[in-house]
């Protein structure tokens, strides 16, 4: 089972690069949605069966694979933009940096003082790498929608880390985390709407006019 | 419940604190109008009627009761303590608060100020209650919480006239200075927590700290509490704040809130069993410097309330000098000196909480009548506000330390200490006498100026000419305070009896010493004699006036036919002589353009006393700090992406560091 889980995690890492390397927003959203579904399946592979687990898996797949992508796609249609032009960090540099961060994550994870049962697993490095890729997207992209995507990737990274603990995770905590994410995306949707109305563009660098002098 | 109240006066005090805190709430909820304010004043009077008898009975019983508060906060349990030191400081709170509250009915009626009135009333109650809690708190966190509520209520009380930039500036300086002081308190209580292992205050005299730790505790207390007490050079917030607040607020701030600083200092000092000599010497020196500089700056002020504010610095300086004297007395094993210092300081503190509110109330009714605080625009108000003028005279005589009022009695104790106890180990104490005498002299100059320019002569402006007496709601509190000043002067024994139980808390040696070198009845005899002499003279003059008849006409102008009231001596001209003596201490900015050409046109001259320390030193230094921080502000550029990079870099650094 662990072998299959590791393969899925590798898929996750590859999806990170897909997000980093594309300028088409719709494709990024689909990649993140797929990543969410893959991650939703993971708990079922690493932990023994229980109804609690079924609920978690179903909840994650529904929210990350369907609800959030639908919200974002709708926002994309509303704002009428398909592509990210002129990012702060270009696509090729993004990919190179992403690779660098992934390598760093593996090095770092090897040195972390982990519990013995977690050593040698791909979970920790995959989590760190995904987290940093999410950061990279947040830093490098201009459009507010790309930032939402970066935020989602980052959250996925945190989620992978949480998988190590899923057994100890009560339903309430899990539900709370998902709800948090949903609300976060919702709020960002509203913010996006307001940015585009106020500045007639979704370029977050224009927000600097809002700082206090 | 009622039965318990009867048996335990401290519960009555707690009830009064709650009543004070909630006194302004109905006014916030009711629709704007008189009823809310009247209810608040009623609450205030009821609170004081509940608290004062309980306080005095507790004080005379000399017992200490504690209440353990087992709250769920992470600082551990806390205590409320009713010991003599706390009880003594509660008396001014429950005396000035109801009087100020009554005064506000005439001075700041809700009907005339519907937008600011209810909030002002609410914070007035909250300020009083939080001060009471500061005094009752027996653990660091509780004291700091109450302290913060007190500081913030004070801030909101300063702001009702926030349309004026001067008021906003004063409030900002107050807020900043107050929080700088709180930083000192944080250091103090953290250090105490480290050394005693608990946030609860150590028992009296039980803290055996030496070396650096003791010095840190002492200096932190001196800075934190000293800035609240307005000791120089930490006084910069005080004059502007007290001058710009509504008068009943100034009375509470000046009459009571300043004392919280002295309370804190005494409380911290009481923890120590052994105190190095230099602590007492430092407090003594700071006190004398504050007294001298404070009154010197007061003498050149031209703003009625600013003059009073600077005189508060002087009086608190005298109190600090007394405390320093007591500490020296204790360290050198001179119980008489310790007694005279501490009893004099605490007595003067009580006195100041009587005559300073009285003078601020008088200033308020002058302000109410004329609409200005500028001394040079007043004059002739004695005829138009006779009661205010009389009470103002009474307060001025009391604050100058002249018989037969209470200021004389307390300063007399300090004089005795400086003069009588300057013996072998510390002969330099005698140097306090000329300092004290100089302070008294300059105080007399200042208050002659205040009274003469305001109430005597001819009106200098239209507003002063049409002044009117204040309503009874304002006069009654003033009369109560004036009466208490007289009682304190004639029977100082009453006040000293209140002070007596406190002595053992701070300086145990002083408590054993009770015999003054003279009978206190002399005060009553001599005071009555002075009073009788004054009344007799007044009566004689009056009779001569009546029998010989009086003619009234304009002052003889040496033959000049068109004298105007602008040719009168002004406050500035009166203070000019003194100002020329003290030009090194107090700078007055004169703005008088030189006449140009053969036939110069109309010109204006003006002058403004400068806040030397604030404007010459502190503001320039803060300006430099601002320039230094401008580089830091570049970090805040509004680019969301770069902000995320900050987070990311922090995360990376943390990861590397942890590894």
From TrEMBL, chain A:
The chain crosses the membrane at residues 49-76, 88-109, 121-139, 148-166, 172-192. The keyword Acetylation does not apply. The keyword Cell membrane applies. It comes from the Bacteria. InterPro entries: HyfE-like (IPR038730). It is a multi-pass membrane protein. One of its GO terms (cellular component) is plasma membrane. It is found in: Cell membrane. Keywords: Cell membrane, Membrane, Transmembrane, Transmembrane helix. This is Hydrogenase. The lineage of its organism: Bacteria, Pseudomonadati, Thermodesulfobacteriota, Desulfuromonadia, Geobacterales. The gene is ehrC.
From TrEMBL, chain B:
Its main location: membrane. It is found in: Cell membrane; Membrane. It holds the Pfam family Proton_antipo_M. InterPro entries: ComplexI-like_HydComp (IPR052175), NADH_UbQ_OxRdtase (IPR003918), ND/Mrp_TM (IPR001750). GO terms for biological process: ATP synthesis coupled electron transport. GO terms for molecular function: NADH dehydrogenase (ubiquinone) activity; oxidoreductase activity. Residues 142-414 form the NADH:quinone oxidoreductase/Mrp antiporter transmembrane domain. One of its GO terms (cellular component) is plasma membrane. It comes from Geomonas limicola. PANTHER family: FORMATE HYDROGENLYASE SUBUNIT 3-RELATED, HYDROGENASE-4 COMPONENT F. This is Hydrogenase. Keywords: Cell membrane, Membrane, Oxidoreductase, Transmembrane, Transmembrane helix. The chain crosses the membrane at residues 12-30, 42-65, 85-105, 117-136, 142-159, 171-189, 209-227, 248-266, 278-300, 307-328, 340-367, 387-408, 428-451, 472-500, 520-541, 640-658.
């Amino acid at each position: 089972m662990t072998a299959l889980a590791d393969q899925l995690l590798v898929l996750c890492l590859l999806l990170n690069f897909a997000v980093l390397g594309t300028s088409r927003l719709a494709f990024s959203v689909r990649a993140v949605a797929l990543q969410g579904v893959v991650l939703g399946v993971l708990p079922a592979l690493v932990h023994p069966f229980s109804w609690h687990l079924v609920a978690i898996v179903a909840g994650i797949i529904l929210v990350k694979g369907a609800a959030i992508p639908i919200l974002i796609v709708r926002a994309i249609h509303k704002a009428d933009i398909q592509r990210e032009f002129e990012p702060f960090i270009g696509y090729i540099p993004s990919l190179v940096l992403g690779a660098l961060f992934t390598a760093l994550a593996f090095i770092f994870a090897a040195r972390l003082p982990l519990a013995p049962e977690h050593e040698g697993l791909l979970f920790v490095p995959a989590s760190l790498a995904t987290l940093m890729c999410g950061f990279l997207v947040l830093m490098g992209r201009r459009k507010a929608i790309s930032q939402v995507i970066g935020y989602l990737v980052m959250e996925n990274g945190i989620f992978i880390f949480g998988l190590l603990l899923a057994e100890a995770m009560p339903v309430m905590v899990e539900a709370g985390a998902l709800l948090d994410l949903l609300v976060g995306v919702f709020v960002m949707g509203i913010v996006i709407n307001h940015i585009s109305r106020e500045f007639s563009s979704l370029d977050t660098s224009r927000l600097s006019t809002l700082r206090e002098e | 419940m009622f039965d318990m109240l009867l048996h335990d006066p401290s519960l009555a005090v707690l009830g009064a604190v709650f009543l004070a805190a909630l006194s302004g709430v109905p006014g916030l909820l009711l629709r704007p109008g008189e009823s809310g304010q009247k209810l608040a004043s009623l609450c205030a009077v009821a609170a004081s009627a509940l608290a004062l008898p309980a306080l005095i009975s507790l004080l005379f019983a000399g017992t200490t009761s504690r209440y353990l508060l087992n709250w769920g906060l992470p600082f551990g349990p806390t205590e409320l303590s009713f010991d003599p030191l706390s009880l003594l400081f509660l008396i001014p709170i429950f005396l000035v608060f109801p009087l100020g509250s009554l005064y506000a009915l005439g001075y700041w009626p809700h009907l005339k100020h519907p937008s600011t009135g209810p909030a002002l009333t609410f914070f007035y109650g909250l300020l009083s209650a939080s001060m009471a809690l500061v005094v009752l708190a027996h653990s660091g966190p509780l004291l700091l919480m109450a302290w913060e509520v007190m500081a913030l209520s004070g801030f909101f009380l300063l702001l009702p006239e926030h349309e004026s930039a001067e008021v906003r500036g004063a409030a900002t300086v107050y807020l900043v200075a107050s929080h700088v002081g709180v930083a000192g308190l944080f250091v103090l209580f953290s250090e105490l927590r480290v050394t005693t292992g608990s946030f609860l205050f150590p028992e009296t005299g039980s803290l055996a700290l030496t070396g650096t730790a003791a010095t840190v505790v002492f200096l932190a207390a001196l800075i934190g509490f000293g800035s609240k007490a307005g000791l120089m050079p930490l006084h910069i917030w005080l004059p502007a704040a007290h001058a710009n607040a509504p008068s009943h607020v100034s009375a509470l701030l000046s009459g009571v809130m300043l004392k919280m600083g002295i309370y804190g200092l005494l409380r911290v000092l009481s923890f120590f069993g052994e105190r190095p000599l230099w602590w007492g010497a430092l407090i003594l020196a700071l006190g004398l410097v504050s007294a001298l500089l404070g009154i010197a700056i007061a003498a050149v002020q031209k703003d009625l309330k600013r003059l009073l504010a600077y005189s508060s610095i002087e009086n608190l300086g005298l109190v600090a000098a007394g405390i320093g004297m007591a500490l020296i007395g204790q360290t050198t094993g001179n119980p008489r000196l310790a007694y005279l210092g501490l009893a004099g300081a605490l007595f003067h503190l009580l006195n100041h909480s009587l005559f300073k509110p009285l003078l601020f109330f008088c200033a308020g009714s002058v302000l109410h009548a004329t609409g200005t605080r500028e001394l040079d625009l007043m004059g002739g108000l004695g005829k138009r506000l006779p009661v205010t003028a009389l009470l103002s005279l009474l307060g001025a005589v009391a604050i100058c330390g002249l018989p037969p009022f209470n200021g004389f009695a307390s300063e007399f104790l300090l004089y005795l200490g400086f003069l009588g106890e300057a013996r072998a180990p510390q002969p330099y104490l005698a140097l306090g006498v000329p300092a004290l005498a100089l302070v008294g002299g300059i105080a007399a100059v200042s208050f002659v100026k205040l009274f003469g320019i305001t109430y005597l002569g001819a009106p200098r402006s239209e507003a002063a000419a049409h002044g009117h007496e204040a309503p009874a709601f304002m006069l009654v509190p003033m009369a109560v305070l004036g009466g208490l000043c007289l009682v304190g002067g004639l029977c100082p024994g009453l006040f000293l009896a209140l002070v007596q139980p406190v002595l053992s808390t701070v300086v145990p040696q002083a408590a054993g010493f009770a015999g003054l070198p003279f009978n206190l009845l002399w005060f009553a005899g001599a005071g009555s004699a002075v009073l009788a002499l004054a009344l007799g003279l007044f009566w004689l003059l009056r009779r001569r006036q009546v029998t010989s008849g009086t003619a009234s006409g304009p002052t003889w102008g040496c033959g000049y036919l068109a004298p105007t009231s602008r040719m009168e001596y002004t406050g500035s001209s009166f203070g000019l002589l003194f100002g020329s003596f003290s030009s090194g201490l107090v700078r007055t900015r004169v703005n008088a353009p030189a006449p140009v050409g053969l036939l110069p046109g109309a010109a204006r001259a003006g002058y403004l006393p400068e806040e030397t320390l604030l404007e010459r030193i502190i503001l320039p230094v803060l300006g430099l700090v601002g320039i230094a921080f401008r580089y830091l502000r570049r970090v805040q550029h509004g680019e969301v992406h770069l902000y995320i990079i900050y987070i990311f870099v922090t995360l990376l650094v943390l990861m590397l560091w942890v590894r």
